[in-house]
Amino acid sequence: MFFFTLLLITLKASSALGDCAEEWPDCDKGRNTVCQREEDCSAEDECEAGPMNYHIRKKLVDVHNRLRNQFAGGDPKMRSFNVSNMMVLSYDSDLQHTADCHINRCQWGHDDCRGTKKFKTAGQNLYMSTARSSGQKLAFSDPQKFAQNGVESWYSEIEIANPADIADTYKFVPGTGHWTQMIWAETTHIGCATSGSTDSKHYSYLNCNYGPGGNILDVKLFEHGDPCTKCPEGLKCSEQYSNLCGEEDASMLDVDFGAGDGGNGVEIKSGSFVTILLTVLVVFRLM
């Protein structure tokens, strides 16, 4: 007769910052998307993580800043509003991580909690396309073009916006929310992710998260006035974007997320849970 004792030891290691909710804060609507997925933000069934690398990140940041600069300087489509406090956008790896966790489900719709330790509340823009090139989903065959298409489609909502709706404080207007998040003056960072469905629909998805988030009811989208005249203390007009405040921090454009240039590897976060399973099998044999 054999007697087996199976000892399963689970060690949960976390950083000194604490558990998941401290690194990825919950909100009034529930748990953070990262914590809901228990830090496993890989693609779910019938979903494939899309590419995200230096060139795609740079394209996303550049198109955002170009259009923010255009609006702050007086976009003729909006009766030449001028914005005095529009910030340059930089890239943020934590915002990309939360975007990964959501878009790697390949499900259309916003998540409820996507904040980070730095940005407790974060905005979100989503884009979905069936466009293809060379027989592949555009997000995979030409990811920079796909990224540009997505951002420009959000900004195109200016065509249906009413100047009166943004002259003072933010009001919810259907069909313009992507655009108003894009021109939210105090937003300073974005982080984005792409994915594609592997079912017969062949959708490509883009998710950009924004920190700090905009589209807050009864809060000003921006300050009126000559560009860069109301920048935060210590900041001046950007050398590259003359109507925006500050300079882009490009340090996060080339972050290694562990999957190379071809996919959205999950970066090892300082506050991640690491579960180690040690199985010790002790065998006693009694004659």
Task: Output the keywords.
two-stranded antiparallel ribbon, signal, SCP domain-containing protein, secreted, Allrgn_V5/Tpx1_CS, single chain, CAP_dom, 287 residues
Mean pLDDT: 85
Percentage of β-strand residues: 15-25%
Highest-level CATH class: Alpha Beta
The major pleated sheet works out as: 5 strands, mixed
Distance between the termini: 7 Å
Helix content: 10-25%
Identify the CATH architecture.
Answer: 3-Layer(aba) Sandwich
Number of helices, where a helix is a run of at least 4 consecutive DSSP H or I residues: 8
Structure description:
- The structure is a single chain.
- Helix 3 packs parallel to helix 6.
- The protein is 23% helix and 20% strand.
- Residues 1-18 and 258-287 have low confidence and may be disordered.
- By secondary structure, the protein is an alpha+beta fold.
- Strands 2, 3, 4, 7 and 8 form a 5-stranded mixed β-sheet that branches.
- The chain has helices at residues 20-23, 33-36, 54-72, 93-103, 138-141, 143-155, 163-166, 177-182, and strands at 2-13, 47-49, 90-91, 123-129, 132-133, 136-137, 189-197, 204-211, 274-285.
- The chain contains 8 helices and 9 strands.
- The protein starts with a strand and ends with a strand.
- A hairpin with a 2-residue loop joins strand 5 and strand 6.
- The chain has a single domain (30-270), classed as Pathogenesis-related Protein p14a (3-Layer(aba) Sandwich), CATH 3.40.33.
